[in-house]
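Hello again,

I reread your note about wanting to compare the complex against the isolated chains. To keep things tidy I'm splitting this into two emails, and this first one only covers the full assembly. Below are the input lines as submitted, including protein chains and any nucleic acid or small-molecule components. They are followed by the predicted structure of everything together. The single-chain runs will come separately.
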Amino acid sequence: MAERLSPPARFTPVSSDDLRIAEVPFLTQINLRVDPKSRAAADIGLALGAPLPTDPGTCTSAQADVLWMGPDEWLVVGERGDDPEGTIRAAAGTAHVGITDVSAQRTVISVDGPRSRDLLAHGCALDLHPRVFGPGRCAQTMLARALVVLAATGEEGFRVFVRSSFAGYLADWLLDAAGEYLRKGTVTSR
Amino acid sequence: MLLIPCPWCGPRDEAEFHYGGQAHVAYPENPAALSDEEWARYLFFRDNPEGRFAERWNHTAGCRRWFNAVRNTATNEIEAREVIA
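Full-complex prediction:
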């Protein structure tokens, strides 16, 4: 089998006391379209371990991360090799549900550390204050003019979902913008 | 830049949106019966008021949903908005 390369494969993870940036490649991502009031939506939530989040800009995390994408649309994110699609299909049965594997659409860059909010704020117009955008929040927006899905995974950690063709550009931009936060104790690893 | 309140995502930059023109332009009930001029009026003629104007927006960089908003074209204040089902 041919070696599988992620789009920003030439991107080198960096970390310092203040900031850690690394790619999280090849996560399993499923786009889910279903009427939130339907029986199928409840069944899928049950199978995934948490009800589908219906508040705009929120995500839940149980067997897989479920990110709100729209009033009837979610992005289900599993670890590499997980099969959330099988779980969803089994729960949905023959109901009117749209399930699409979009794993190749986006790759994920994780931004972590006390200065992660400062770094993202360089190129994102959203209010990223922890009171507004704390753990459990997600948003589709623009980061440095690239379309991204931002998800707050912890108090200081974010996942940036970016389209594969923009990933190299965004990785370059993040590294450039992170310059001032990486001076202290920077470790670069391959 | 305008700060446009998406009914789903909240206030976002204008750059995240696509403009959809005047809202509530009804499709003719019987298009075949229209004269060329009436058809052209339906296709190309839109209001251009100074003041309140109902228009369509799509939040292309966010939830990708269409909604209607009433914008004051003189002050750019957005006074009302509604979800399109």
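For quick reference: Chain B touches chain A at residues 8-10, 12-13, 15-16, 61-65 (CB under 8 Å).

B.
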